[in-house]
Amino acid sequence: MTNEFENFNDRDEEWLRELELRATDLENDLFDWREAHARELADSSYGRDGTPQRSTDGRPGMLRAQPRPTQPRPAQPGRIPPQPARPLHNEPDDVPPYAIEEDEPDDDLTTVIGSAGWPGASAQQRTQALIDRGRRSASRGGASRARMPKTRKGVLAVASVAAVITIASLFIFRSSPGWPASVASVQSQIETACKNPNVASEPAQVNFACGKDTSQILWVFALMTSGNNAQFNDAKTGRQGLEPITPAQGGQVAWSLNLHHPYNPMDPVDSLQVAARAINNIIGGATLTGTNGKPVVQPGLESNPDNCVKYTGSSAIVSHAGFPSQCAQPVTSTTGQAALVADTYRQWVVGATEAAAYDVGVLFSNAGNPGNPQVQAILKSLPNVR
User: Fold this and answer.
1) Cis peptide bond N-terminal to 197, omega within 30
2) Residue ranges of the domains in the chain?
3) Average pLDDT in the 210-215 region?
């Protein structure tokens, strides 16, 4: 059918000229038929009364359509001449536009041109067929090629969009390693505990434990010592609470916090407040009142020039009478803070190993990066972490 259709398109001009000629001939035949029919009616009405008869030749020869001279066209290799058409009544009327019309019969125009008329058909029938059917639109040939239904295109489009959304969701919402769920609870409790203004060291007012960028030291210590369990109780060492410490030690620190209730080591906020004040004293030192009533200065980690080199890169310290000495430069670098936290942990947890102190520094430095491989390895090694 494809070869026939292509041949049909190539010969459009010739067929159009032939159609014009045949249409003109059909009009002349129809005119002659009407003249003959009128003459028969006149004969039957008036009889043979000698009325002049019109010539049966119809219109003068000059009105007859003359064939146009055709231009020779070069033969195209591979073209197959059109086959005789089947009758028009065999063509189905409900062929879907996207079907491949393998068996579609030729139309009336093709039949007229290919067979030079319908045998047994009158001139009027041929004329009526040309008027009713005419020539098929050239766009019909495009429709004869296979086309995908619109519903199928819609389904494929929706499926493609769904696939893109699914893949994007896997990348956007895929689960990534994070901190244990208990860390979020402890962070909330830290906010409450750090509202107590007395957690800073005295008299230097060092407040590393509740600093905006350093308060993670509290939940890192809790994670390493109690697994963030506020009811932690180690019968061997006597340490209790979220930030494990003996009740006696906790009580000694708690009196400086001006708590409005008795100290309870199992209360997570109380435990965090005591830990914050103790950590700040370890770092910045403290000035206490001795048994003789005179002030006693207890040095902190920053009172040592060698430590200041490790924390700040400078050994310079600042000293004031009655105050513990402090590093002249603030501890701001990541490595300096990690070293300070590790040293503080070893004083907070008596007997802590150097490896454990190093792990604390790693967790502190990667508080915003729980997916760090070292962090994940440390978390897996901790017992009873929730």
Assistant:
1) no
2) 2-144, 182-381
3) 95
